[in-house]
């Protein structure tokens, strides 16, 4: 670790610190990097995440997959260590490190013992701040990512959800696959990666989150010593809100063993007042054995083994999907059965008090149980600060969910379960 100069120490004195109740603490460094931590003294471990507000929707047109490529390269080699040396350094401490790229952000994370914080932090800052971006490594990783894309093409759920995003978002950046395509990955040059990384790693786009038995002041000191990049010029990234497209149907034929059905529609996003009602609607529709879709598709009609709904909320929009896999001859019947459940929700079988309370109990139990995981706590505070600029306390979240009424759920159902509003993707199985 670099020795802190007096100039850097002087900079540290200008950082602003904000205490959020008994929970997380937030420090904003003078260059704009935000640090959030939750001190849990009763554990002997910690989870650290380096979050960057750059995801696949922010990539330059024709360069799709760049940020995911950079995520891979960070673990390939740094200016100081080889891939093997990095892996050995983490694993000799029993630390687990990984990363992921989403539509709107990238996160490098690690889980380790508190006694090893200094060494683990040093490794994490090294791989994020000092990747070698060696030309030979780029070619190796290019091949690996192309194989990753091929592997996704062998997974029916990957294929159908990617097609669903294309149907819902059309030419918008949210429709692009996070991994990119074989064409874009094959054409990326080192200069493209260097340029994208310079735009990506801006201090105003970085949040460093820690949950566990690590004092906040120690984290701030370490980050201030390493993340010393100056404030840059204004970012050129400008997110464009997607427009709602007319519902449509797409039919594909693939060499799968089953047929697959996906219904999807665009929702409002993270900042919408509908956020928690949508979360409960998703539970009611397709989360768990008591959900409407499970009881209809699997229990009542015996059409499929796998059936569920999913909700993704972005900063300015979101998606709600209904999915099942079934015998090829039954895909239209399965689609009609899912639409029928939506119709029942609106008309003949609205959500009652008991069903709503059960959905609330599922969400609240999930939230409370997640508090026992350092990784889940780190992700909650890191993602919350990165995406929303604040951290909502567990008590606030529980109160908002608990306050949702049958009337509010009925209004959300009227908005999103109307049967003509669903786009659909059907994949017919072609046996080879």
Mean pLDDT rating: 92
CATH fourth-tier homologous superfamily of the largest domain: Metalloenzyme, LuxS/M16 peptidase-like
Q: What percent of the residues sit in helical stretches (DSSP H or I)?
A: 40-55%
Please count the beta strands (DSSP E, at least 2 residues each).
12
Explain what you see:
The structure is a single chain. The protein is α+β, with helices and mostly antiparallel strands. The chain folds into two domains: 12-226, Metalloenzyme, LuxS/M16 peptidase-like (Cytochrome Bc1 Complex, Chain A, domain 1), CATH 3.30.830; 249-429, Metalloenzyme, LuxS/M16 peptidase-like (Cytochrome Bc1 Complex, Chain A, domain 1, 2-Layer Sandwich), CATH 3.30.830. It is built from 16 helices and twelve strands. The strands form two sheets. A seven-stranded mixed sheet has the order 1-2-3-7-4-6-5, with helices on both faces. Strand 2 (25-28) and strand 3 (34-39) form a beta hairpin. The chain starts with 5 loop residues before the first helix and ends with a strand.
């Amino acid at each position: 670790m670099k020795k802190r100069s007096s100039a850097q120490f002087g900079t540290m004195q200008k950082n602003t610190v904000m205490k959020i109740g008994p929970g997380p603490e937030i420090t904003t460094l003078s260059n704009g990097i935000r640090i959030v931590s939750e001190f849990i003294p009763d554990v002997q471990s910690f989870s650290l995440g380096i979050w960057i507000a750059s995801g696949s929707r922010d990539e330059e047109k024709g360069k799709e997959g760049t940020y995911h490529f950079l995520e891979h390269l960070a673990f390939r080699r740094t200016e100081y260590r080889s891939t093997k040396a990095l892996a050995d350094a983490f694993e000799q401490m029993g630390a687990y490190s990984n990363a992921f790229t989403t539509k709107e952000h990238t996160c490098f994370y690690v889980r380790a013992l508190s006694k090893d914080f200094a060494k683990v932090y040093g490794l994490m800052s090294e791989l994020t701040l000092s990747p070698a971006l060696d030309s030979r490594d780029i070619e190796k990783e290019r091949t690996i990512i192309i194989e990753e894309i091929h592997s996704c093409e062998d997974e029916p759920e990957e294929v159908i959800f990617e097609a669903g995003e294309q149907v819902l978002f059309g030419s918008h950046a949210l429709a692009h696959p996070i991994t990119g395509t074989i064409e874009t990955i094959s054409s990326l040059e080192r200069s493209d990666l260097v340029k994208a990384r310079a735009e990506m790693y801006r201090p105003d786009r970085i949040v460093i989150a820690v949950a566990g038995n690590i004092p906040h002041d120690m984290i701030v000191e370490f980050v201030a010593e390493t993340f010393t990049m100056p404030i840059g010029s204004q970012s050129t990234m400008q997110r464009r809100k997607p427009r709602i497209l007319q519902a449509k149907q797409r039919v594909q034929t693939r060499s799968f063993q089953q047929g697959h059905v996906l219904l999807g529609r665009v929702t409002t996003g993270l900042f919408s007042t509908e956020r928690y009602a949508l979360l409960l609607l998703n539970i009611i529709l397709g989360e768990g054995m008591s959900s409407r879709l499970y009881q209809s598709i699997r229990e009542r009609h015996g059409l499929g083994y796998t059936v569920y709904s999913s909700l993704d909320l972005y900063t300015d929009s979101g998606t709600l999907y209904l999915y099942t896999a079934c015998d090829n001859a039954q895909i239209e019947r399965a689609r009609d059965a899912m639409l029928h459940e939506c119709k029942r929700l609106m008309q003949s079988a609205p959500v009652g008090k008991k069903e709503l309370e059960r959905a609330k109990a599922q969400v609240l139990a999930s939230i409370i149980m997640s508090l026992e995981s350092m990784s889940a706590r780190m992700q909650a505070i890191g993602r919350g600060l990165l995406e929303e600029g604040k951290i909502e306390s567990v008590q606030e979240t529980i109160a908002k969910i608990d306050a949702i009424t049958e009337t509010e759920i009925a209004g959300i159902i009227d908005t999103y379960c109307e049967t003509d509003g669903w786009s659909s993707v059907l994949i017919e199985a072609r046996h080879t």
